[in-house]
Design brief:
Number of helices of chain B: 12
Shape of chain A: flat
Largest sheet of chain B: none
CATH topology of the largest domain in chain B: Helix Hairpins
Oligomer: heterodimer
Order of helices and strands of chain B: HHHHHEHHHHHHH
CATH topology of the largest domain in chain A: Cytochrome Bc1 Complex, Chain C
Number of domains of chain B: 3
Order of helices and strands of chain A: HHHEHHHHHHHHH
Strand content of chain B: under 5%
Strand content of chain A: under 5%
Radius of gyration of chain A: 24 Å
Structural class of chain A: mainly alpha
Largest sheet of chain A: none
Distance between the termini of chain A: 60 Å
């Protein structure tokens, strides 16, 4: 036996010992590909999903036609993924941002002095635009497939609420850089809310925390953006995903 | 040709092999027509075929039987009519010879040199007494058939987003100043269709009625309004048309709002007067 073969064998033994050890067995549940002795069998394929946190998101089996990329274009999954990307980059940005009159300086510093600051800010901004677009395309895909029909009517309603929340998240985030683009876009948007009959003035006052966009508005939008709307949207997303499964998975082939 | 299940063929071949004293493989090949049938020298069993023609009168017998209850049901005056029918039905049957007589010599083919003791004529597939409530659905394992494509899509999206962020700088103008109003002041792009509508109509209609009533309430209630259960596009042309018009309208308004509106919300041409939308400046100039 050559030295190389011996080395290979030693390595395989060590790997098996580690993967079959108590630590890895405690982390990965039976059927995980990371465990020792995983073989590609129908039973293990089921276990990968069933014995995993993924089981809360995916069933063990899905309709064959739904796996075709051309049916969903992965738009729903990508909406969710973009939300995760935005959460991660958003938390990172929170380390360097104060929603006060210092906001603008913080953004300038982020772009010029902090490592990867500019990249992460760009990812957050373009990701947000992309999410609005992808959520809208997802809705269009669902409409053209007639996937909102019984028994999925209510999930469509939740989906429209999710689109609305996406727009609100994007809109509240728009103010945070505290530059001329932000303040005037939000002023225009807030003024639209002022046209609501009867309670228009009150809605506008509540939105701006005053009569016009000030740093008080900035703080208000910040809290809505980083805490309130994400909290609400996660709840609606949970119901949305749960209903997808309870209503029989993806809508049938056309 | 009925597709015969393999296990039935196998069973049949075994029986044939046993009867003829040949190997199972040979029997199977014969049954599939891949080799000539085995001939055995045993005397053929003489089959006795009754060639005496069936009496003509027997053929219409069922007809007569069916007529009888009619006769009983009806009153006495119909008896003559029924009798006439009886005779009429008997007549053609009596004229034409029974088909069994004419065809019998051709059909009785003893095939004297091929002594097949038995063969598989047909397979009657067993059907369950109870009908299953739900047809089984064609499904595949989520792992790996769904999760791998999903993973690839996530990676592609991440790569695309990082690439975009590397080449396009997010806008950052001068610090916010409530005293200096830019001209034009534009909302985020997804609200620009709405802002464009505001320039046509009263804000009560364009800014409130259309977004809330049409955009939200109608949109949410859509599955409850559209009661057509069909999902194929050819069977829901109105819905498809409706949504496509909506898409085209919203898209046109948004594009006009983003690119074709300049100072004072006046019409501009982006290739002549430039882009009046700061959020997308970097997309166009690529600096």
């Amino acid at each position: 036996m050559s030295f190389r073969d011996r080395l290979k064998e030693t390595r395989a033994k060590a790997s098996d010992g580690f993967r079959g050890g108590k630590l890895m067995s405690s982390i990965f549940r039976p059927g995980s590909p990371f465990r020792k002795g995983y073989v590609d069998s129908p039973r293990n394929r089921s276990y990968v999903v069933m014995n995993n946190v993924l089981y809360h998101l995916h069933p063990v089996k899905v309709k064959r036609h739904g796996v075709r990329l051309s049916y969903t274009l992965c738009l729903g999954g990508l909406s969710f993924f973009l939300f995760i990307v935005l959460t991660i980059t958003g938390i990172w940005l929170m380390f360097y941002f104060r929603p006060t009159e210092l906001a603008y300086v913080d953004i300038q510093n982020l772009q010029t002095t902090i490592a990867f600051g500019s990249l992460v800010r760009n990812m957050h901004r373009w990701g947000a635009h992309l999410m609005v677009l992808v959520v809208f395309l997802h809705m269009s895909r669902v409409f053209y497939h007639g996937a909102y029909k019984a028994p999925r009517e209510f999930n469509w309603v939740i989906g429209v609420i999710l689109l609305l929340l996406t727009l609100l998240l994007s809109f509240t985030g728009y103010l945070l850089p505290w530059d001329q683009l932000a303040i005037w876009a939000v002023t225009v948007g807030g003024n639209m809310a002022g046209y609501v009959p009867v309670v228009g003035a009150q809605v506008k006052f509540g939105l701006f925390a005053g009569l016009e966009a000030t740093t008080a508005t900035l703080l208000r939008f910040y809290v809505l953006h980083v805490l309130f709307f994400p909290f609400i949207i996660v709840i609606f997303m949970a119901v949305h995903f749960w209903r997808v499964r309870k209503d029989g998975g993806i809508s049938g082939p056309l | 040709m009925v597709d015969i299940p393999e296990h039935l063929l196998q069973r049949s071949a075994e029986a044939r092999a046993k009867a003829l004293g040949i190997s199972v493989e040979q029997a199977m090949a014969e049954m599939k027509g891949q080799s000539d049938p085995t001939i055995i020298s045993k005397e053929p069993e003489v089959k006795v075929i009754d060639e005496t023609p069936a009496p003509a009168a027997e053929t219409p017998a069922p007809a007569a039987e069916t007529v009888t209850p009619v006769k009983e049901e009806h009153a006495a005056e119909t008896t003559e009519k029924v009798a006439a029918v009886k005779i009429e039905e008997k007549a053609p049957a009596a004229k034409t010879p029974p088909p069994a007589k004419a065809d019998a010599p051709d059909e009785v083919d003893f095939a004297p040199d091929v002594k097949v003791t038995q063969r598989l004529l047909t397979v009657v597939k067993a059907k369950p007494i109870q009908k299953p409530v739900k047809e089984p659905i064609d499904k595949v394992n989520t792992w790996p058939h769904l999760m791998l494509p999903e993973f690839v899509a996530l990676m592609a999206m991440t790569a695309f987003l990082i690439f975009l962020s590397a080449i396009l700088q997010a806008p950052l103008l001068e610090e916010a100043n409530p005293n200096v109003t830019p001209n034009p002041a534009k909302a985020p792009w997804y609200f620009l269709g709405l802002q464009e509508m505001l320039s046509y109509w009263d804000p009560q209609i364009a800014g409130v009625m259309i977004p809330t009533v049409v955009g939200l309430i109608l949109w949410m209630a859509f599955p409850y309004i559209d009661r057509n259960p069909e999902t194929h596009p050819s069977k829901r042309k109105f819905a498809i048309m409706f949504y496509t018009f909506f898409l085209a309208g919203a898209g046109t308004l948004t594009i006009i709002g983003v690119l074709f509106r300049g100072p004072g919300w006046n019409w501009v041409y982006p290739w002549i007067d430039g882009i009046w939308f700061d959020d997308l400046l970097d997309w166009i100039h690529f600096e």
